[in-house]
Amino acid sequence: MPGQNEAFPGDPAGHVRELLAEEARLEELAQDLDSRLSGLKDIDLTLTLARVKLQACLAMMKKARRGETGEFENLAAVIGRRASSALRLLDSLTSANISEDQKGMVQASPLFADVKALLEEFLLAGGGGFLEPVSLDRHRTDLLARVVATSIRKYMGEDDRYPPLDVERFPPFIQKLLLAAFPVFIRLRPQKPPYGIEEGEEMTYRSAAMRLPLSQAMAYLEEELIPDLERRLAGEPGNQGLQDELEKVRARLQEYRSLRVTPRAAPVLPLARGLYTEGMTSFTQDGEILVSIPVAVNFKSGTNLDRTMELVRMDVVRRVAGHGISAEIDREYRRLKSLASGPRGSSRTPSFKLDTSWGAWVLRQDFPFLARLTDKKGFQELTEVVRSGSLRAAEGIISALITRDTREPLGADSEGKTRGPKENAETGK
Predict the structure, then answer these.
(1) What does the domain layout of the chain look like in residue ranges?
(2) 266 DSSP assignment
(3) Residue 72 or 256, more confident
(4) Please, which pLDDT band fits residue 1 given cuts at 50, 70 and 90?
C-alpha cells in the first residue's frame, strides 16, 4: 500500500509524496497536542490536516487515472481511507459539544471554506464511490440489530421519577453529616420528581466560569487569556480593573502549575496536594483533574430525549467494539487495549476509552440506518418498536431497516418522504 515515502508512477515532481509528508507532519502535531492537552483540538490545525488529506486524495486520483487501471485500483483503498479521515476530522469539529456563544466558530474560519470547496471538488471528480458503505452480510446485520435493540431497551425507561432521599426523617446530627458528605446528591428540601427537561422546555444557561482538564486550563490561560489582557492593558495602561484581573489570572496560572497529583495504580481519585475545593472535585476519564477558569459561557440544557439518544449512541459504539461489525472501531479497540496506547488506553476496559463520537460517525458511514439515532423523530419510532413487542421481534424489524437504509439511505421513498420503521420493514421484506 502506498505510503508517504513510496514513489508514485506519473508523479515525477513528487507532489503526492510532498502532500503525504505534510500530512504525516500535521498528524504528528495533532497527536502530540491530543496527548499533552487531554484531547484538545486546534481548529486551524485540524482543518489544515483535513485540507491536506483531500488535496492528497485529488492528486492521487489524477495521477492514477493517467496510469494503468490496476494502479487506480491499488490506490482506491488509500484514497477512500484518507477521504473518510478528512470527513471525520470535519465532523469532529462541527459536532463538538461547545458552548452556545462558540457555535459557528468553525464555519467562520477561512480554512473551513477551503476544505468545503475541496470536498465538493472531490465528490464531483467521482470521489463518492470511495465512500460507499461496505457490503452487508446477514451476521453483521443481525448482530448490529441486536446491539441497537438492547441499547434502546436499556435506556428507554424514565429515570427521573425516583423519589429523593427524605433527609428530614433522620436526627439532626445525621442530617448534618449527610449534607456535608454528599452536598451534590442530597438536599434538605429536594425538588420533587420529575427532574428532567421535556421537549419544548429546553433552557439556555449562563455560567461565569468553565471547567477544563488542568493541562487545557493552563494552556488557555497562558496562550489566550493572559496575552489578551496584556494587549488590552497596553491600550489602557492606567486601567486598574485590567491590572487586577491580569494579576489574578497570573496567580491562578501559577497555582495550577504548582499542583502535584499523586499517581495511583488504579487512579479512582488521584488527590492533588494542597488543593481545596468547595465541593466534590471531578476528574477526567483518564484521571486528570478538572479545574475552573474565569470564562463566561452560554450553554443549552438539553432534554431527556437528547440525553437518552446520546447514551444509546455511546452504548452502541462500546457494544460493537471487538465484535467484527466495524473493522476501524475494532482496530482502535485493540490499540486502546494494548500497551502502545499508554495512559489513554486500558487493558481492562478499553471500550470505555473509545471516543464514542468518532465511533458513532464511523458506524454511520457503514450503516446509514444509524442516522436514526441522531434524529429525534426516528429515535422515538425505534423506541416504540422496541417497547411494543418482544426483543426478538424488535431485532427482526431493525435488521430489515438496516438493510433497507443501506440500499436507500435514511429510508427515503420515491416521493422524498421518510418511512417509519414498520413501513420500512414491511417494504424491505
Answers:
(1) 15-130, 138-157+303-427, 165-195, 209-295
(2) S
(3) 256
(4) very low
323-354 residues labelled b (16+ CB within 10 A) or e (exposed)? eebbebbeebbeebbeeebeeebeeeebbebb
Side-chain half-sphere exposure of 325, counting CA atoms within 13 A: 27
What are the backbone dihedrals phi and psi of residue 418, each rounded to the nearest 5 degrees, phi first? -105, 125
Q: Look at residue 201 and give its three-state secondary structure.
A: coil
Distance, in Å, from the CA atom of 76 to the CA atom of 192, rounded to the nearest integer, reads 59
Which cell is 37 given?
492537552
For the beta carbon of residue 150, count every other beta carbon within 10 angstroms: 17
Residue 404 CA from chain centroid, whole number: 27
Its sign, for the CA torsion 117, 121, 124, 126, is negative
Q: What is the pLDDT of residues 200-217, one digit of tens each?
A: 888 888 888 888 888 888
CA 224, distance to chain mean position in Å, is 24
- Looking only at Cα atoms, what is the longest distance across the chain? 85
Three-state secondary-structure class, residue 381: helix
Tell me if 272 sits within 8 A of 290, measured CB to CB: no
Torsion of CA 251, 253, 257, 261, to 10 degrees: 100
For residues 24, 27, 28, 34, the Cα torsion angle rounded to the nearest 10 degrees is -170
**129 three-state secondary structure:** helix
- The dihedral formed by the CA atoms of 86, 87, 91 and 93, expressed in degrees to the nearest 10: 20
Three cell numbers written together for 249:
489570572
Instruction: Check: CB of residue 184 under 8 Å from CB of residue 280.
Output: yes
Cell of residue 272, nine digits? 492533588
Question: What grid cell was written down for 316?
Answer: 452502541
> pLDDT band at 318, cuts 50/70/90?
very high
Write down the pTM of the prediction: 0.65
Read off the pLDDT of residues 83-94 as tens digits, 9 standing for 90 and up. Answer: 888 888 887 787
